[in-house]
Automatic annotation (TrEMBL), chain C:
All copies of domain ABC transporter, residue ranges: 2-246
Domain of life (superkingdom): Bacteria
PANTHER family in the record: ATPASE AAA-TYPE CORE DOMAIN-CONTAINING PROTEIN, OLIGOPEPTIDE TRANSPORT ATP-BINDING PROTEIN APPD
Subcellular location per the Swiss-Prot or TrEMBL entry: Cell membrane
This protein's UniProt keywords: ATP-binding, Cell inner membrane, Cell membrane, Membrane, Nucleotide-binding, Translocase, Transport
Family, per entry: Belongs to the ABC transporter superfamily.
SUPFAM superfamilies: P-loop containing nucleoside triphosphate hydrolases
Cross-referenced InterPro entries: AAA+_ATPase, ABC_Ni/Peptide_Import, ABC_transporter-like_ATP-bd, P-loop_NTPase
Matching Pfam families: ABC_tran
Species of the source: Acetomicrobium mobile (strain ATCC BAA-54 / DSM 13181 / JCM 12221 / NGA)
Protein's UniProt name: ABC-type dipeptide/oligopeptide/nickel transport system, ATPase component
Main localization of the protein described in the UniProt heading: membrane
Amino acid sequence: MSFWRLDTLFLAFLSLLALLTPLLGPVNEAVAPPFCKPLWLDHESGKPLSLNAKDNSLSFTWESKPPKTFSVKGTVTFEDVPKSASLLLAGPSKTYKLVDLAGYRNFDVDIDSRDVPLKLFLGLSPFVDVSSVIFSERGAYSLFIASDVKAHVDLNLNIYTGKWGIFGTDQRGRDVFRLTLAGIRISLLVGIFATLIASTLGMGLGLFAGYLGGLADSSIMRGVDVLLAIPTLPILVVISGVWGRGLWQIVFVLSIFSWMGTARVVRSLTLSLREAPYVEGLRALGAPTGYILARHFIPEAMPLLLAQMALGVPGAILAEAGLSFLGLSDPLMPSWGRMLHEAQVFGAFTSGAWWLIFPPGLGIASICLAFISVGRRFEEMADPRLREMAER
Amino acid sequence: MTEEVASVESLTLTFDKIDAPALADVSFCLNEGESLALVGESGSGKTSLLRLLLGLLRPTRGKVRLFGQPLDDVGGEELRRIRRKCSYIPQDPFGGLPPTLSPLQAVVEPLIVTRPNLKYEGTNKAKELLSDLGIEEALWNRKLVQGFSGGQRQRIMLARALITDPKLLLADEPTSMQDVSTRMDLINLLKVYLKNGMSMIFVTHDLLLAKAMTLRGIVLYRGRMCETGPTHLLLRDPLHPYTKALVSALPKLGKPIEVKVKRRPLPVGFKGCPYLALCPYGFDRCKDLPPMKQLSDARSVACFMGDTSQGT
Amino acid sequence: MMRISSLSATYPNGFNAVKKADLKLSSGEILALVGESGSGKSTLIYASLGLLPKGSSVSGKVFFDDIEFFALPKEGQRKIRWKKVSLVLQGTMSSFTPVLTIKRQFLEAMEEHLSLTPGEAMAKAVELLEEVGLEGNFLARYPHEMSGGQKQRCAIAMALCCDPDYLLADEPTTALDVITQAEIMNLLKGIAKRRNMGILMVTHDLALASSTADEICVMYQGCTIETERSDIIIKSPKQPHTIALVRSLSMMEE
């Protein structure tokens, strides 16, 4: 059976993306107005525009509906302190003075069309939508500086139309596509680490319980019973209240509450292996317990363990998603569950903003399916009967 | 004066909650260089006997001595030392080999466990043993879990047992899965080691094989000794009805098999002769346990009928 | 008469287990198919009933009386199995479901192939058990409550339930002790004579074959190399492999 199939390729691809996450840049920053629809979804609004003005003036045309918002950011440097200077935005029929630059040599411009001071400066009521006023006409526009002194300009004009990016933006204006990609890393980290720790713990305890028997076996198994009876969620709520919310807190709790299944399975395996004639022969030769466990039991348990791990990862991912969905995770952590949480809390479900729900949801589902498929293959390796069924 | 290698005295083994004992009142003695057959079918207690000899089980009553040391007296390091002089071939070829190793690794393993410094010479010796036993070189490094037949596994188990040059070999049906033509390879290899002074306890249900491998034999039925004596005499002139049944049940080339047995269900907790379950004779007397009667210097029988040696 | 003519069988992995084998089984007689492990003897009987795993290729002809088996449609083949020919598998453990009593397994087999009322089926089951030397109350037992020999007798009884003309038995006595083995062999002899059934028995034990069977067919590496009456083949084997087998046996006996 070749190693590279759809599921392993998919997971390898995701891991690559997870590694490249830092290249995405800061994910938690707002890049556009909140609740923008994806570019390909909205056909009515115009395309968002992003222009940079290095000369004194910048000309462009606007041929569609008035945009949602616009912003002008940058610096203006005068050769000398101007006595009168201003930043103007001229439309086909009217010209608007956006800001007064007189009296300063260097000016940092930071204008957003939602700013109330701007509205007052333009003589409009604080509740008016500035961009619909300024961009009410279609035609040629230009942004320029009018001053009595020469000016050097480095301004960015961004016009936002309510569409942005591949998946739009969320309630804070963050790019959902980048958030989704960043979420891969979180899911993989939580899933893999929690399962790794739980499996190692489970295997160690299962081996000891099975091989040593007696008091060790009973005490470990009662521990298993107790932990199985404790509900994970309330404990996690308590822990998140006491220790704060964070990635590693979640990993810790998930590990503590998932090793029991593996321990039981490994224990049964050890119990049956222990009775094998070759083990008796080795004991008769005087082989130490540690040798027998390390050289024989662990390799025999490996396929089973790998299967358990591969099947445990979806569980951990879903658990983390669930916890985040309930709001118990770090708000700054771009996890898929968190995205779903915010989508629900901020009304995406009711307003029909499905582009906020599908990416994280599909992400969770597909990563879980990939791991289950890989886990199924490990199970086939461990149990020859399943292999025959697969080959038929 | 040859040393005693193994001996058991009035050995009895009862498992919890099971009425009938696995072994009852078994006694024998094995000296250096001797080979002894334990003949019996499944349920006769022969496998438990081997495990008792190695100290893997504790007897309910009776004594076991290995190389002169009583096993209940000895512990820890001394026990390990005596055990290392023995080798055990289990009956099950599928459970008797570690599935995650290859044949080469499995054969070298006993050396690694007992004398780790001999690993290099051990590997060469292992390769020699494997070729002698007909396992091709191409198979030496394939993992055992990947499919070896029962016959091949038995040969690997034999190599694994012989690599430590044991003083005492405890073999439980080591050739049961071999074809008639390949059986001779194993038998001949064992004979080489026997000639070099190895002692052997050979468990089998096949009287002919016992005769080929050993000089003395003990016939067991449901944990009790029925008859002891030189193996060729057990075949030629069996005294106990069970031995007679075993001999007549052997397929002889060209002759039909005629076996005289009468199956009787025995009540639970029956304290008489266990062979009453099959014995074609069966007198009232047999409700009491027949004692083991010593006939000549090497023969003894536990049957009320064995008082006189009957011709056929 | 059951006749196998030029049968070849290859497993899905490409292994050619049987090469142009020929066989003739007469009613009322026992034919032993003798060969070492890997000689293809088990494959031969499964192939002749069309029971090899999917993907295997089988060529040649098999005749039960004058019916050519492979020429029949699937449904026709099903009817032949159990009614004209029945099979006793190797390893009595596999013949039985551990969670059902023998009675259920018997009745299931009979309901499948005959159409009897439950009363008739029960009566027949008891009759068959007595024929193989077991008491009728065995029907209430579970497989794990019986010894190996008893299970094998049950398997034979089940194979007889549709009164077949031929019985194919794959290693019927491996894992049984010698005494039980002798009893089963004598049972098979009696059944062959009483019912005028042809029994084909696969075994690796030439000695056992020679004391039970009327005719012996030796297989070696997939080919049926020699077929002869059992007394003749022991006294004067012709093929080199047969000679070797007979010789190693006589060596053991003396």
